[in-house]
Design brief:
The structure holds two protein chains of two kinds. By secondary structure, chain A is mainly α. Helix content of chain A is about 75%, strand content about 0%. In chain A, strands 1-2 form a two-stranded antiparallel ribbon. In chain A, a hairpin with a 6-residue loop joins β1 and β2. In chain A, α8 runs antiparallel to α9 and α9 packs antiparallel against α12. Chain A starts with 13 loop residues before the first helix and ends with a helix. The model of chain A has no long low-confidence stretch (mean pLDDT about 85). By secondary structure, chain B is mainly α. In chain B, α13 packs antiparallel against α14. Chain B is globular, with a radius of gyration of 24 Å. The model of chain B has no long low-confidence stretch (mean pLDDT about 85). The chains are: A mainly alpha, B mainly alpha. At the A-B interface, α1, α3, α4, α5 and α6 of A face α1, α4, α5, α6 and α8 of B.
């Protein structure tokens, strides 16, 4: 497809008028604050903003020698790998079966896509309610099986709770992409393998799964981004980073340090680290998209 | 279907039904809890069949007349705030992205590529990586606790701009030439030719952006301190800050149901455009 128009309109001022709203918003609310975050990450100021001094890389140095920050990195890594891995596995399983059934694919799709519409914060509240230690229906059932559930004390259980809520919300998204990917695999390939005697299990691993690998990789990146940045509300609504700091993912920590603990320099340095992570993830995603076009 | 395997067909339906049930279970529990009294819920285990207090609970939530909730602002008001914000964000994003894509595709002007890349880079600057300074800007402009503060900073959209750009590039050049011969200027061409052609893309984007706007959490949490400007998603969170037993869970769950209904309706009713939009915007 062409990336340029052959025929264009001529005007020196009209394009700028048309671009003004978008450029205004991104200048004031994106680039200016991002620049400020960069500046502040090299500065130190007191809580009242009465003095500011340049401290060079000290904020970053302090950040990376802070054990709670390093622990937050580990928490985020574990959380995002669990969310991406479980979310992709469950959705793939459902999509493969939904692609296989003769009748009802659309009904199953309708019944599986609605959690996409649920706000992350609401998802957090729903799962918190089911697992509330004293009144939750699931924690009560678990207790009758001898499992003492209390995510306010047990950090493994707190992690399981936010992973479950995050995966639950993301299944619909992954499912739609896998289903679209499966439906675009030519039926003739699968039929040819069947005639050669390959059973469904084998056909899945030798034909469908390899042909889905671009979709799987794309979803992996998207799910990692989701777990990093869109799950703040789930954490804030269900565990508030607790117990202790055991579920405080990076974004939660930026918010907490900047707005609750009022450590502006430290929070700005964390913002800059997050920016580097987003840039890296976006580059990975777009390089992959270009490859897919050639493929 | 490649071959006839009844057992595998049954297994497929069994797995899918199990999946649907597990996915729906939290919703069912929420609905049941929203029809009972606070006392019924607190005596574990709560009943698993709907109770008789559906109307009472939803009215209490909507009017904010429940006792003992940490924050008892009327949910009706919060729903209105959410609806206005979500509509402004969705329509605003579509409008300014249409205009920018039109400028970038149909005009040649200095710095065109710079502007294009500037819009692209905003993809890498989500609110989460610049919360402190963005909050300062909005506070400095006096936009805290206002609709403008809730919506305008979220209204720029790289994805929508790209989607419209891609679409405009597929529109045949003959249409521009024909419009020119008929004496139409750029804005007439935009309004009479491009806009009607873009309706499907606009519908698809609307679904996604409406849900994005309705479900915002971190940003409203920062810019709203006044109960009358809470979107419903924030309102729910404020209601549960009292701890397990002190919370009126029946009212919270009624509010959760109310908060889920509008975006869920948009997704289910506009499912065709939603699926298309989701797959297209990520390409």
């Amino acid at each position: 497809m062409a990336t340029e128009k052959r025929v264009v309109f001529r005007s020196a001022w009209l394009p700028w008028v048309l671009l003004a709203p978008q450029v205004g918003v991104i200048a004031v609310f994106f680039f200016w604050p991002a620049g400020q975050a960069l500046l502040q990450s090299f500065q130190q100021s007191d809580a009242f903003g009465s003095y500011t001094e340049w401290v060079g890389l000290e904020n970053f140095h302090r950040l990376f020698s802070d054990p709670t920050y390093l622990a937050s990195f580990k928490t985020t890594a574990l959380f995002s790998v669990l969310v991406a891995g479980l979310g992709i596995a469950i959705s793939l399983l459902l999509a493969v079966f939904a692609d296989r059934v003769v009748r009802g694919t659309t009904i199953y799709r309708t019944l599986l896509i609605w959690p996409y519409a649920v706000a992350p914060a609401v998802a957090g509240v729903l799962w918190l309610f089911m697992f509330a230690p004293s009144i939750g229906i699931v924690s009560h059932t678990l207790r009758s099986f001898g499992v003492e559930w209390n995510h306010l004390l047990n950090s493994g259980q707190a992690m399981a709770l936010i992973v479950a809520a995050a995966v639950w919300k993301q299944i619909s998204y992954n499912f739609l992409f896998f289903l679209a990917g499966l439906q675009s695999i030519p039926k003739s390939l699968v039929e040819a393998a069947a005639i050669d005697g390959a059973r469904p299990w084998r056909r899945f691993w030798t034909i469908q799964f390899p042909l889905l690998s671009p979709t799987t990789f794309f979803l992996f990146v998207i799910n990692i981004v989701y777990a990093f940045f869109d799950t703040f509300a789930i954490v804030d609504a269900s565990t508030q980073g607790g117990p202790g700091k055991d579920t405080a993912i990076l974004v939660y920590k930026v918010y907490y340090d900047g707005f609750k603990a009022m450590d502006l320099g430290g929070s700005a340095a964390q913002s800059v680290v997050l920016m580097v992570i987003v840039i890296a993830l976006t580059v990975v995603q777009f390089r992959f998209v270009e490859k897919k076009v050639n493929y | 279907m490649v071959e006839h395997r009844p057992t595998l067909g049954l297994l497929a339906h069994a797995v899918l039904i199990l999946g649907v049930l597990v996915v729906a279970f939290p919703l069912y529990v929420t609905f049941v809890a929203s029809t009972q009294t606070a006392e019924q819920i607190v005596q574990a285990p709560m009943p698993l069949l709907p109770g008789s207090h559906l109307v009472d609970n939803y009215l209490a939530a909507l009017n904010g007349t429940a006792m003992g909730v940490a924050s008892s602002a009327p949910v009706g008001r919060m729903m209105a705030v959410s609806l206005v914000s979500a509509l402004v964000i969705a329509i605003g994003k579509i409008a300014i992205s249409l205009l920018s894509a039109f400028a970038i595709v149909y005009f040649r002007f200095p710095l065109r590529n710079v502007v294009f890349w500037a819009i692209f880079i905003t993809l890498m600057l989500p609110v989460e990586v610049r919360i402190g300074p963005t909050y300062e800007v909005v506070a400095g402009l006096g936009l805290l606790n206002s609709y403008a503060g809730l919506t305008v900073p979220l209204i720029a959209s790289a994805t929508a701009t790209f989607l419209f750009r891609q679409f405009f590039l597929t529109v045949p050049d003959e249409l521009v030439e024909a419009a020119r011969i008929d004496g139409a200027g750029p804005m007439r061409f935009f309004l009479d030719v491009l806009l009607p052609l873009s309706v499907t893309s606009m519908a698809a984007l609307f679904v996604i952006q409406f849900i994005y706007g309705w479900n915002q959490y971190l940003w409203p949490l920062l810019v709203t301190t006044d109960e009358s400007m809470y979107p419903v998603v924030i309102g729910i969170k404020r209601m549960i800050s009292g701890g397990d037993a002190a919370t009126d869970w029946n009212i919270v769950m009624a509010t959760a149901m109310l908060a889920m209904i509008p975006p869920a309706l948009v997704v289910l009713l506009m499912q065709k455009w939603f699926v298309k939009g989701l797959v297209d915007t990520e390409k």
